[in-house]
């Protein structure tokens, strides 16, 4: 039997997770043929078939399934050994696998990256954008180190560090700028545009409005906040947006932005990581930089406001 390499195990782990050669290759940042060759060599080394290749999809053999579970554990332990070595030297140097949700990434991540470059130039940020469920799973399985998400995450194995609390604001067509701000009862009867299922911001909006998406309200869906704003600008509905998104998303849109009556809906944004991560103590330095990127000195109940019309002024 030839030696089995960590590279082969990483490629096989990716293939087992994605069940697709192309997606696994992209995950490993290699070409599909290169990944296929390594999988074949792994099968040759073991003298057994691991992957049953079909016309459109692949399945793992019984040995392949068993190896996938074992390989994943081995890779986790190898990564932890690497992190332990980093912790004893310069922990904030080298790669940092960093996840962020789509309703935060375009607005806060660039400023955060600039802070990292200034204070930790040897740190190599490897950002990944995805929904909260995927990011938390990747953290649990040691495929991510840290993630920037909406808190709380209700997972006792994770450390949560808040960065800011921001308001949700009402975005309406520009023609409605002088109209009274709707109360919650009125808001529930209006044509509301939401992010598609899977986004935590969607669930937060539904919770605030006390909506039942399949219970009769006129609800439309989009995959990005940018699309929501453009649809509002066309006059077909209204939406809620996190305040940090306003400067970018509404700059060229024909919309009006207004605060909602008290108690205003908010979300808390923060960093999460595994409590038992070898670099856990070092990640607290990232919290400080995240708070600077969020707009200066951290305050647990506010975020630097954009140019937003106050609801009291609109109602006057």
TrEMBL record:
PANTHER family per record: HYDROGEN PEROXIDE-INDUCIBLE GENES ACTIVATOR, TRANSCRIPTIONAL DUAL REGULATOR HCAR-RELATED
InterPro entries for this protein: LysR_HTH_N, LysR_subst-bd, WH-like_DNA-bd_sf, WH_DNA-bd_sf
GO molecular function ontology, one term from the record: DNA binding
Keywords: Activator, DNA-binding, Transcription, Transcription regulation
GO cellular component: protein-DNA complex
SUPFAM superfamilies attached to this UniProt entry: Periplasmic binding protein-like II, Winged helix' DNA-binding domain
PROSITE patterns in the record: HTH_LYSR
Naturally occurring in which organism (per UniProt): Spiribacter salilacus
Database matches in Pfam families: HTH_1 (PF00126), LysR_substrate (PF03466)
UniProt-recorded name of the protein: LysR family transcriptional regulator
Domain HTH lysR-type: 4-61
Entry similarity comment: Belongs to the LysR transcriptional regulatory family.
